[in-house]
Specification:
Order of helices and strands: HHHHHHHHHHHHH
Number of helices: 13
Largest sheet: none
Strand content: under 5%
Radius of gyration: 18 Å
Distance between the termini: 51 Å
Helix content: 55-70%
Structural class: mainly alpha
Oligomer: single chain
Length: 243
């Protein structure tokens, strides 16, 4: 079954709180009480990690789509196609997307709640940023406002500038990326030091690890691209250091 199925009705039985609880509560006619929706600590206690990740992507994608002041057709198509949402589930996913896009609540409260849910899994938080880049690239240009928003989300997530730059650099083709930025390293560091970082990143961003921590199979292809960038960067650095 697709992870996008039954996200609205299927979450009713879970302990929802914070902005996500308020958003879903408004979509199901207030079946979630105000008291429960007002709490930020319960969301995620019983919900499946994949469902939480899916909701996070839908809501943040909606906020990102209007970051530059306009929602392009390409971005809307990207949310559907790049997140691999089946036609029979577009309507209900669209309800969540449109509600998040139209509401006055900014992206920050959602980012804070996501950060709390995944506070022990920073590699999953990095993957959220990675896929947001994927969405932002849909119209062929990542605007400065989109970049600023993603950078601020990364900051809320507790990711440092080096980690954000690595994600951003990894989006480039292998012949254009800076391998040191991808591996969060410096040219003056010795090969053994960089190798340790390479092995660490390889483990953290391995698709199997991310799936076990809640990243849905539907979007794991982007994690594989990150892994290819990490491997390519390591190959390039080995060649550079050999000269």
């Amino acid at each position: 079954m697709s992870i996008w199925g039954s996200l609205i009705g299927g979450m009713v039985g879970f302990s929802l709180g914070g902005p996500f609880g308020m958003l879903l509560g408004s979509l199901i006619g207030g079946k979630i009480s105000r008291a429960r929706s007002g709490s930020t600590g319960n969301f995620g206690a019983f919900a499946q990690p994949q469902q939480i990740f899916a909701l996070s992507l839908i809501v943040l994608s909606a906020k990102l789509s209007k970051a530059d002041g306009q929602v392009s057709k390409e971005e809307l198509v990207a949310v559907r196609d790049k997140l691999k949402i089946p036609e029979n589930e577009i309507e209900q996913v669209g309800k969540i997307f449109n509600k998040a896009k139209q509401e006055s609540t900014g992206y920050e409260p959602y980012a804070h709640q996501i950060a709390q849910i995944y506070k022990n899994n920073p590699n999953v938080l990095e993957e959220v940023i990675n896929i947001l880049f994927y969405i932002a690239e849909a119209d062929g240009n990542v605007s400065q406002s989109e970049l600023d928003m993603m950078q601020n989300i990364a900051k809320i997530f507790g990711l440092n500038q080096t980690q954000f730059n690595s994600i951003k650099e990894s989006r480039k083709s292998s012949d254009k990326l800076n391998p040191y930025i991808v591996l969060e390293s410096k040219p003056e560091e010795d090969l053994q030091t960089i190798r340790k970082r390479y092995l660490q990143l390889s483990k953290e961003h391995h698709p199997d690890i991310l799936i076990s921590k809640g990243v849905p199979q539907e979007v794991i292809a982007e994690s594989k691209k990150k892994m290819r960038a990490v491997n390519s960067a390591w190959d390039q650095i080995q060649k550079l250091k050999a000269n």
